[in-house]
5-methyltetrahydropteroyltriglutamate--homocysteine S-methyltransferase (Sulfurospirillum diekertiae), 732 residues
Amino acid sequence: MSQTYVTGFPRIGEKRELKFALEAYWAGKTDFEAVKSVAKTLKNRHWNYQKEHHIDFISCNDFSLYDIMLDTTVMLGAIPPRFENIDDKIDCYFAMARGDDDHAAMEMTKWFNTNYHYIVPELHANMNFSHVNISKIAEEFIEAKAQGVHPKINLVGPLTFLFLSNAVDGSDLYSLFDAVVTAYVKVLYAISSLGENIVVQFDEPLFAKTLEPKFLSLLKIAYERLGVVSPNLKIAVVTYFDRANEAVEILGNCPIWAIGLDFVYGEENLDALLHVNNKILIAGMIDGRNVWKSNAFKTYELLEKISEKIDDNHIILSTSCSLLHVPFSTKFEEKLAPEVKSRLSFALEKLVELEQLNTLWEKKEKPTISACTQKVPPLQTSGIAYTRSPYATRFALQQKALNLPLFPTTTIGSFPQTKETRAVRNAYKKGEISREQYESSLKESIKACVEFQEELGLDVLVHGEFERNDMVEYFGELLEGFAFSENGWVQSYGSRCVKPPLLYGSVRRKQPLSVDWTVYAQSLTEKPMKGMLTGPVTILNWSFVRNDIPKSEVAFEVANAISEEVDELQRHDIQIIQVDEAAFKEGYPLREEKIKAYEKWAVESFKASIGIAWDQTQIHTHMCYSNFNDIIDTIERMDADVITIETSRSGNKLLKVFQKANYRAQIGPGVYDIHSPRVPSVEEMSEQIKACLQVLPKEQLWINPDCGLKTRGWSETKAALTNMIKAVQLAR
């Protein structure tokens, strides 16, 4: 009899209960016991959902109050020394994640090529990881057992943990390998005391990247040690997001129980099955990253190919990765068109898909082709000519037209969205207020925002984006081919959730996307008003995109629509237009051999969206939480006039990439972290600017926060921007 396995489950709650509990606690409205109560309810509910669908392998320790990598840092006793003066464990935990009055938060970046952000561990030479602590694991294990679940225990694998960390003293991460593995051995010994026959799942998504021989040799050493810690434990090494053939060849000879592979995004894993060597194969067949129902016929055919190389009694059917990356359930979607909803599968529906696939496989009943998702024909698009002059020519024209001072100041786009702002937008959507009332309210917010920025002394203003619920969803609502869920929330980081649009059909621009609000804002000031758009690559990477045609085709449909908007903005005398590509790096394939193809269509679609801009129209773009070392040439090919990036948590290391590449365009390094409520001092931001000037010529430097201000409060925004302006005045 075959079995089913869920790699991991969403934790924020079907109605975002954890989000609201955390935010109430952070605001001082409740105590931590209230958070613990909500967390316990959610864990029990999620375990029961999986039991109801007869999932055989259900996780514990996939739940987190903020981030699993941060939890692993605590488990290994790797808390950075700068937080050791915080006596309360909970205060320390959230200070590491969010910062507090006395501590800057730890760095945060994207989890591989997803929109989930993790807290980057801070390691240094000679760490011994002597304070291993499995109290969280033990508590959840006991809770699950009380619910009638014999859970597997999820751990971030030692190699993924180590090589996603930051060596804060510049030491070689390889030098910490033995200490990290030794700490994991201690963790496994402690877990082995919890009972018998415990499955421990090591998440090693790093194995899906292109790996160097030195790394592969460590992989072998690590799992030869971890695989024999205790006979009470069954070790499963799970990797996902792409193929992992090189790792499988080594893991097949290690003393572990099972290997988990992603066959949705790594069908090439079929070639690695000869190396599984009679181990259990956890076959990732149900898509854990996208919301469209699996093509049952093709999935079954792929399973048949797997069974040609692996005995049926050695195959466990699984999700391709954790279901953390999809919304909770379509059962809460009452307004979606039936033709869209019928094609969707969120986390709970994926449990059904997995259960159904298992039943079909047991009975050897192959689904019919007619059960497959029907294709939607793509829009036929023509190429957009790129007619912009070389950067030096554009720079001269823009300097003359804009006449900006040294170190121009701006923000990334959004300003705080209060409860009142959201209430007005929701009231309009529900038909409770008229269009005239809604637009009047928005104009009041924009006017106040423009006055606020002028009072602060910013050089390039924005309209504040009060009409926008989200930087992607807003545009999707004005384009054909998109649908929107009511409760399709996905955790992005901590309590922050996003609701990605559902890109299901052909895309075209129905009406102006931002022109009216931008032109109105410009009419209120003599200073340049920045038009704010989202780029085609980010719209794709932050949407659930139809899976029946290549993303590259969809990208050019979206680029056409953005290009039309760029042209209309400049014809309305908007001289600066920002086309955000915050998720550009996020979409990169993990395997080197797939990168060129992605870069080609990603760069070309971005340039298609801005190619219509006149030379005197200054094009900005924004990228956040990215490592640019390996893509700096690609960024240059994008040919933006100004790029704004996040450097507040990562110091100068990102800027040095631009320096080394002799990057000529202008750069706006984020001088303070908007993801933390902490307000940096004038002195602190002055030091940030000085650090930037050690790397960049003054003529290249813009000054701005590191991301949009939507999630911050007005008082802290005013305080932080005031300090930023003062620091700029000192620098000037």
User: Anything to note?
Assistant: Residues 74 and 89 are 10 Å apart (CA to CA).
